[in-house]
Protein backbone atom coordinates (compact mmCIF):
# COMPACT_ATOMS: atom_id res chain seq x y z
CA UNK A 1 0.00 0.00 0.00
CA UNK A 2 1.54 3.33 -0.96
CA UNK A 3 2.12 5.85 1.77
CA UNK A 4 1.52 9.57 1.56
CA UNK A 5 3.44 12.34 3.18
CA UNK A 6 4.95 12.00 6.64
CA UNK A 7 5.08 14.93 9.04
CA UNK A 8 7.25 14.85 12.14
CA UNK A 9 6.07 17.34 14.76
CA UNK A 10 7.08 18.12 18.32
CA UNK A 11 5.04 19.30 21.26
CA UNK A 12 6.43 22.75 22.13
CA UNK A 13 4.76 22.86 25.60
CA UNK A 14 3.39 26.31 24.85
CA UNK A 15 0.81 27.85 22.55
CA UNK A 16 2.20 29.11 19.27
CA UNK A 17 0.35 31.33 16.78
CA UNK A 18 0.73 28.74 14.01
CA UNK A 19 -2.73 27.15 14.36
CA UNK A 20 -4.93 30.21 13.96
CA UNK A 21 -7.73 30.64 11.42
CA UNK A 22 -5.57 32.76 9.06
CA UNK A 23 -3.00 29.93 8.92
CA UNK A 24 -5.75 27.47 7.95
CA UNK A 25 -6.75 29.76 5.07
CA UNK A 26 -3.12 30.19 4.03
CA UNK A 27 -2.64 26.41 3.75
CA UNK A 28 -6.05 25.70 2.18
CA UNK A 29 -5.11 27.46 -1.07
CA UNK A 30 -1.65 25.96 -1.51
CA UNK A 31 -0.19 22.83 -3.07
CA UNK A 32 1.78 20.38 -0.98
CA UNK A 33 5.34 21.64 -0.63
CA UNK A 34 4.53 25.28 -1.39
CA UNK A 35 4.61 26.11 2.32
CA UNK A 36 6.41 24.80 5.41
CA UNK A 37 5.47 21.32 6.70
CA UNK A 38 2.40 21.60 8.95
CA UNK A 39 -0.55 19.53 10.17
CA UNK A 40 -2.75 21.79 8.03
CA UNK A 41 -0.73 20.79 4.93
CA UNK A 42 -1.31 17.11 5.72
CA UNK A 43 -5.03 17.71 6.32
CA UNK A 44 -5.31 19.80 3.15
CA UNK A 45 -3.73 17.05 1.05
CA UNK A 46 -6.08 14.39 2.46
CA UNK A 47 -9.09 16.67 1.91
CA UNK A 48 -8.00 17.50 -1.65
CA UNK A 49 -7.48 13.84 -2.55
CA UNK A 50 -10.82 12.87 -1.03
CA UNK A 51 -12.60 15.47 -3.15
CA UNK A 52 -10.59 14.76 -6.32
CA UNK A 53 -10.57 10.95 -6.23
CA UNK A 54 -13.82 10.47 -4.27
CA UNK A 55 -12.06 7.91 -2.07
CA UNK A 56 -11.66 7.64 1.68
CA UNK A 57 -8.46 9.08 3.11
CA UNK A 58 -6.66 8.41 6.38
CA UNK A 59 -4.37 10.48 8.55
CA UNK A 60 -2.40 8.46 11.09
CA UNK A 61 -1.23 10.42 14.12
CA UNK A 62 1.33 8.49 16.13
CA UNK A 63 3.82 9.24 18.86
CA UNK A 64 4.92 8.71 22.41
CA UNK A 65 2.98 9.72 25.49
CA UNK A 66 2.72 13.49 25.70
CA UNK A 67 3.78 14.04 22.08
CA UNK A 68 0.59 15.94 21.22
CA UNK A 69 -1.36 13.33 19.23
CA UNK A 70 -4.78 14.45 20.49
CA UNK A 71 -3.96 18.09 19.80
CA UNK A 72 -2.75 17.27 16.28
CA UNK A 73 -5.98 15.38 15.58
CA UNK A 74 -7.94 18.36 16.90
CA UNK A 75 -6.11 20.72 14.53
CA UNK A 76 -6.79 18.42 11.56
CA UNK A 77 -10.51 18.40 12.47
CA UNK A 78 -10.46 22.19 12.78
CA UNK A 79 -8.99 22.38 9.28
CA UNK A 80 -11.69 20.07 7.84
CA UNK A 81 -14.46 22.00 9.59
CA UNK A 82 -13.14 25.30 8.24
CA UNK A 83 -12.48 24.34 4.62
CA UNK A 84 -15.53 22.08 4.54
CA UNK A 85 -17.79 24.99 5.39
CA UNK A 86 -18.86 23.42 8.68
CA UNK A 87 -16.96 25.50 11.23
CA UNK A 88 -19.77 27.95 11.91
CA UNK A 89 -22.70 25.72 10.92
CA UNK A 90 -22.28 22.71 13.19
CA UNK A 91 -18.99 23.29 15.04
CA UNK A 92 -18.20 19.61 14.45
CA UNK A 93 -14.78 19.87 16.10
CA UNK A 94 -16.41 20.89 19.38
CA UNK A 95 -19.02 18.14 19.10
CA UNK A 96 -16.48 15.41 18.39
CA UNK A 97 -14.15 16.60 21.15
CA UNK A 98 -17.00 17.09 23.65
CA UNK A 99 -16.79 13.37 24.38
CA UNK A 100 -13.11 13.72 25.29
CA UNK A 101 -13.48 14.37 29.06
CA UNK A 102 -15.61 11.23 29.48
CA UNK A 103 -13.27 9.12 27.36
CA UNK A 104 -10.24 10.51 29.20
CA UNK A 105 -11.73 9.69 32.62
CA UNK A 106 -12.27 6.08 31.58
CA UNK A 107 -9.21 5.57 29.38
CA UNK A 108 -6.50 7.95 30.60
CA UNK A 109 -4.10 7.51 33.50
CA UNK A 110 -1.06 9.15 35.07
CA UNK A 111 2.24 7.82 33.77
CA UNK A 112 5.78 8.90 34.55
CA UNK A 113 5.85 10.88 31.29
CA UNK A 114 2.36 12.38 31.22
CA UNK A 115 -0.26 13.11 33.91
CA UNK A 116 -3.10 12.58 31.42
CA UNK A 117 -1.85 9.80 29.17
CA UNK A 118 -4.25 7.93 26.87
CA UNK A 119 -3.95 4.24 27.58
CA UNK A 120 -5.92 3.32 24.47
CA UNK A 121 -6.03 4.15 20.78
CA UNK A 122 -8.64 6.38 19.15
CA UNK A 123 -10.08 5.98 15.68
CA UNK A 124 -12.02 9.03 14.53
CA UNK A 125 -14.07 8.68 11.37
CA UNK A 126 -15.38 11.93 9.88
CA UNK A 127 -18.29 11.80 7.43
CA UNK A 128 -18.63 14.24 4.54
CA UNK A 129 -21.57 14.86 2.22
CA UNK A 130 -21.38 15.15 -1.60
CA UNK A 131 -20.35 18.82 -1.27
CA UNK A 132 -17.50 17.75 1.06
CA UNK A 133 -19.06 19.38 4.13
CA UNK A 134 -18.73 17.53 7.43
CA UNK A 135 -21.99 15.84 8.37
CA UNK A 136 -20.89 13.83 11.40
CA UNK A 137 -18.19 11.88 13.14
CA UNK A 138 -17.73 8.61 14.97
CA UNK A 139 -15.04 7.95 17.56
CA UNK A 140 -14.00 4.43 18.55
CA UNK A 141 -11.44 3.25 21.04
CA UNK A 142 -9.28 0.15 20.90
CA UNK A 143 -6.40 -1.59 22.68
CA UNK A 144 -7.32 -0.47 26.19
CA UNK A 145 -4.40 -1.19 28.52
CA UNK A 146 -6.19 -3.65 30.82
CA UNK A 147 -3.10 -4.51 32.89
CA UNK A 148 -3.32 -1.04 34.49
CA UNK A 149 -6.48 -2.13 36.34
CA UNK A 150 -4.53 -4.54 38.55
CA UNK A 151 -0.99 -3.10 38.47
CA UNK A 152 0.67 0.29 38.12
CA UNK A 153 4.35 1.03 38.03
CA UNK A 154 5.86 3.23 40.73
CA UNK A 155 4.80 6.90 40.40
CA UNK A 156 1.94 5.93 38.05
CA UNK A 157 -1.81 5.72 38.63
CA UNK A 158 -4.79 3.66 37.56
CA UNK A 159 -7.43 5.15 35.27
CA UNK A 160 -8.76 8.58 36.29
CA UNK A 161 -12.31 7.24 36.71
CA UNK A 162 -11.17 5.10 39.65
CA UNK A 163 -9.92 8.15 41.56
CA UNK A 164 -12.97 10.20 40.58
CA UNK A 165 -15.18 7.47 42.04
CA UNK A 166 -13.06 7.43 45.23
CA UNK A 167 -13.36 11.19 45.58
CA UNK A 168 -17.14 11.08 45.10
CA UNK A 169 -17.84 8.08 47.36
CA UNK A 170 -19.32 10.33 50.07
CA UNK A 171 -21.85 11.96 47.71
CA UNK A 172 -25.49 10.80 47.90
CA UNK A 173 -25.50 9.92 44.17
CA UNK A 174 -22.78 7.34 44.79
CA UNK A 175 -25.30 5.12 46.58
CA UNK A 176 -27.23 4.68 43.32
CA UNK A 177 -24.19 3.17 41.61
CA UNK A 178 -24.42 0.00 43.71
CA UNK A 179 -20.71 0.08 44.57
CA UNK A 180 -20.94 0.71 48.33
CA UNK A 181 -20.63 -2.93 49.38
CA UNK A 182 -17.48 -3.56 47.34
CA UNK A 183 -15.95 -0.19 48.16
CA UNK A 184 -14.36 -1.19 51.47
CA UNK A 185 -10.86 -1.70 50.06
CA UNK A 186 -8.56 0.99 51.51
CA UNK A 187 -6.94 2.88 48.62
CA UNK A 188 -5.24 6.24 48.45
CA UNK A 189 -7.44 8.70 46.55
CA UNK A 190 -5.30 11.26 44.73
Any overview of this molecule?
It comes from Emberiza fucata. Residues 1-190 form the Myosin motor domain. This is MYO5B protein. Belongs to the TRAFAC class myosin-kinesin ATPase superfamily. Myosin family. This protein has 190 residues and is of the alpha+beta class. The protein has a domain at 21-146: 3-Layer(aba) Sandwich (Kinesin), CATH 3.40.850. It is built from six helices and four strands, in the order αααααββββα. The strands form two sheets. A two-stranded antiparallel ribbon has the order 1-2. It has a two-stranded antiparallel ribbon with strand order 3-4. Helix 2 (39-53) crosses helix 3 (69-83) and helix 5 crosses helix 6. The longest helix has 15 residues, at 39-53.
CATH class of the domain at 21-146: Alpha Beta
Instruction: Name the CATH superfamily assignment of the domain at 21-146.
Output: Kinesin motor domain
The CATH topology of the domain at 21-146 comes to Kinesin
Main sheet?
2 strands, antiparallel
Name its key features.
6 helices, ATP-binding, alpha+beta, 32% helix, two-stranded antiparallel sheet, 11% strand, Kinesin, microfilament motor activity, motor protein, 4 strands
Quick summary of this structure?
The protein has 190 residues and is α+β, with helices and mostly antiparallel strands. It has a domain at 21-146: Kinesin (3-Layer(aba) Sandwich), CATH 3.40.850.
Amino acid sequence: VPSGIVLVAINPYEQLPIYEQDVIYAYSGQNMGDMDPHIFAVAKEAYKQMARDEKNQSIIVSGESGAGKTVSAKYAMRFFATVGGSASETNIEAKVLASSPIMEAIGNAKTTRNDNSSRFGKYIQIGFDKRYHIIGANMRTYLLEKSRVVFQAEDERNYHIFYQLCASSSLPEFKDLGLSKCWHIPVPCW
